[in-house]
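Lecture 7 notes. Example A: sequence first, then its structure tokens.
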Amino acid sequence: MYLAILSEVDWSGLDQATADRQNERAGQKARILAALGVSGSQLPRVDDEMVRRYYRYLSKHLVIPFEACYPGPVNPDEESLHRCTVVELLDPAEHADLGFSGLHCRVRRQTLEVILPLIDLQVPEAHPSFQKIEDFWYWFWNWR
């Protein structure tokens, strides 16, 4: 049996992965600050005004309609059961009755239309709106 000594282990891959993750988070933070129209280095807390700002940004930049899955398939066989088409991002000022669960959207599944929280949807990574929705999700869940 061979026991590695810590000095024999190549840790450079871990350092690179950590640096990549820090760069990714810095880029995400900059995108969120820009989306909210906020200067500075700290992400603002989630509140009604910031959610409205994010809505204005997303309503101009999301490519709608788009395909998504809800609430997230557990396995590949379920994916087709949860597919929907997002047809509209709802203005939070006009839909305050939906409660404070972020932004909502109108989705269509065959002939059924329902309203779902945007954060509950999974968008394919290849879609042009993926990063914008992912950034919103990250901010909404981590700065409440």
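Example B, a different protein, same format:
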Amino acid sequence: MSFLKKLFGGGDGSGAGAKPVEELEHEGYRVTTTPIPEGGQYRLSAVITKEVDGEILEHQLIRADLFTNTQDASQAAIRKAKQVIAEQGDKMFG
């Protein structure tokens, strides 16, 4: 279980404690990259949000990819978030 806790930033899958590195708007979605520190490296992580009918919808994106610095992890998270938005759109929230 401790491996899973490390993998998902504390066990709840939220990447809690990860600090935002970059934010951008993409096709009506807000992407906030939040690389998760892990063993001297950084796991790809981002939060994708969108306001729909006054409600903020949120999708936590965490992948197994590790990077040596936050900037590389952030750039990869942006590419992956754009891919998820293109492929899934609002379905990612359901």
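Note on Example B: The two ends are 27 Å apart (CA to CA). The chain has one domain: 2-93.
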